[in-house]
Write a structure and sequence with these properties.
The protein is α/β, with parallel strands linked by helices. It has helices at 2-10, 12-24, 33-45, 103-118, 141-147, 205-223, 261-281, 301-315, 333-336, 369-383; strands spanning 51-53, 57-63, 71-76, 127-133, 156-167, 171-173, 176-179, 181-190, 230-239, 249-258, 285-290, 297-299, 320-322, 340-349. The chain is built from ten helices and 14 strands. α2 (12-24) packs antiparallel against α4 and α4 crosses α10 (369-383).
Length: 385
C-alpha cells in the first residue's frame, strides 16, 4: 500500500498542473463545460470510456481483473460565485467565480487516483466507477447523476472534502451523523398598507414578519431535544416601500438544517404553523413554502472504519483523526441513499501559515495534499472491500 503513496507523489506535479488549470478557469454549477472536457480528455488518455451525465458531469468505469464489489468514487467540479483575493499567480481569471471550496483539488485528486488504479487493474476486484459531479453548490447535481443511472450496480460509494483546518497530510473520518440535511424555506406575509401616523387603519406586514423571525428562534431551543442539533437561519427579509407607510407585504427567506427524516419533517411542518399563527395573531396572513433540500450525510460505520484503517495503513497512526458532525450541508448524502459508504476529510492546511476557511476569497490550500487524496481514493478502491 505504501507504494501507492510513493506513486501518488510522483504524480503530484501533474495533479498540481491540472488543479491550477481548473482553478484559473472556474465554472459555476451547470456550466462546467470546460472542466468536463478536461476530465474527459484525461480519462480517455487512460484508455477509459467516459460518459457525459447530468449535462456537465462525467462518469467512467474501471473494470478490475478480479470479481468483487463495485465501488463509486466521487469528486465535485463546480466553483463558487465570488471574486478571488489570494493574489496567486494562478488565481481565477473569471470575474465572479472562484474555487473557494476546493472542488478543483477534488477533481485533480480523483484523476490522479484513476491513474493509480488503472496501473493496478489486474489486482482490482470488481469495478470502480468514477463520478465527476457538477453543481454541488447550487441545487444538487448528485441527484441528477443518480437519475441518469450512475449508482446502478454500485455497492459502496466514497467521497472526500478538503479541510483547511486539518494539516496537509492528514485524514479525518466521522462515523454516523456527519453533515446536516437542509430545508430552504420562504414565507410571504400579507398585510394592508396605511399611513405611518395612522397604523390602526392597516396591518403591518413588517412587524408581523419580525415577530415570525423571533418566534422561529425558539423552535429549536424549546421544541427539540437539546441533544438533537438543528439550526434555523433567516438570511433575508424584504418589506416596505417608504419610511412613512405601513408595509403591506413582507418576504422571509431562510434555511433549516437538521439530522434525520423525522426531525426534518417536524421542523418543516412547525415552521409553517408558527408563521401562520403569528401572522393571524397580528391580523395578517402568511404562506410558507418549504423545499426538501440536501439529504445530509450519515456515514455507514463499517465503511467509515474501512476508510480509517486504510488511512492508518497508508499514512500512519498519527495522521488519522475524527472530525465532528457539522450542520453545514453537502449533497453527497444523495448517493448514500442508494449505497453504503462514507465521506471523509482531507487536510489541506498550511503549516505555520494562516489558513482561511472554505468559501473565503482568500482560501489557499496546500497542494501537496493532492498526493494524499489520490493515494487514499486508490487505496479505498483497491483495499477497503
Amino acid at each position: 500500500m505504501k507504494q501507492l503513496l510513493t506513486d501518488a507523489r510522483t504524480l503530484l506535479p501533474e495533479m498540481i498542473e491540472i488543479r491550477r488549470d481548473i482553478h484559473m478557469h472556474p465554472e459555476l454549477g451547470r456550466k462546467e463545460k470546460r472542466t468536463q472536457a478536461l476530465v474527459i480528455r484525461a480519462l480517455e488518455a487512460l484508455g477509459l470510456q467516459p460518459r457525459v451525465v447530468a449535462d456537465t458531469g462525467v462518469m467512467a468505469d474501471i473494470v478490475g481483473g478480479q470479481s468483487g464489489k463495485n465501488i463509486a468514487l466521487r469528486a465535485d467540479m463546480d466553483a463558487l460565485p465570488l471574486d478571488e483575493r489570494t493574489g496567486c499567480a494562478f488565481a481565477s481569471q473569471t470575474p465572479g467565480a472562484m474555487h473557494a471550496c476546493g472542488h478543483d483539488l477534488h477533481t485533480a485528486a480523483l484523476l490522479g487516483a484513476a491513474k493509480l488504479i488503472c496501473a493496478r487493474r489486474d489486482m482490482l476486484r470488481g469495478t470502480v466507477r468514477l463520478l465527476f459531479q457538477p453543481d454541488e453548490e447550487m441545487d444538487g447535481g448528485a441527484q441528477r447523476m443518480i437519475d441518469e443511472g450512475c449508482m446502478e450496480g454500485i455497492d459502496y460509494v466514497y467521497g472526500a472534502h478538503v479541510a483547511p483546518e486539518l494539516p496537509a497530510g492528514n485524514v479525518a473520518v466521522c462515523s454516523g451523523k456527519a453533515y446536516a440535511a437542509s430545508n430552504p424555506f420562504d414565507i410571504r406575509v400579507f398585510g394592508s398598507g396605511a399611513h405611518g401616523a395612522e397604523p390602526h387603519l392597516g396591518t403591518d406586514a413588517l412587524t408581523t414578519a419580525c415577530a415570525i423571525v423571533m418566534e422561529l428562534q425558539t423552535l429549536v431551543s424549546r421544541e427539540l431535544d437539546p441533544l438533537n442539533p438543528a439550526v434555523i437561519t433567516i438570511g433575508a427579509l424584504t418589506s416596505g416601500t417608504a419610511r412613512n407607510i405601513l408595509a403591506q407585504g413582507a418576504e422571509l427567506h431562510g434555511i433549516c438544517r437538521s439530522y434525520g427524516q423525522q426531525t426534518r419533517a417536524f421542523l418543516s411542518r412547525r415552521i409553517g404553523e408558527i408563521a401562520e399563527h403569528i401572522a393571524l395573531a397580528h391580523g395578517a396572513r402568511a404562506e410558507t413554502s418549504v423545499q426538501w433540500g440536501y439529504a445530509g450525510i450519515i456515514n455507514n460505520p463499517d465503511a467509515t472504519y474501512a476508510i480509517e484503517q486504510t488511512a492508518r495503513a497508508l499514512l500512519g497512526e498519527g495522521c488519522v483523526s475524527a472530525y465532528p458532525p457539522t450542520l453545514t450541508t453537502e449533497d453527497f448524502g444523495a448517493f448514500l441513499n442508494y449505497a453504503s459508504g462514507s465521506f471523509w476529510h482531507l487536510g489541506v492546511g498550511r503549516t505555520g501559515a494562516e489558513n482561511p476557511p472554505l468559501h473565503s476569497p482568500f482560501f489557499n490550500p496546500d497542494e501537496s495534499a493532492l498526493a494524499i487524496g489520490a493515494a487514499m481514493h486508490a487505496a479505498i478502491a483497491l483495499y477497503a472491500q
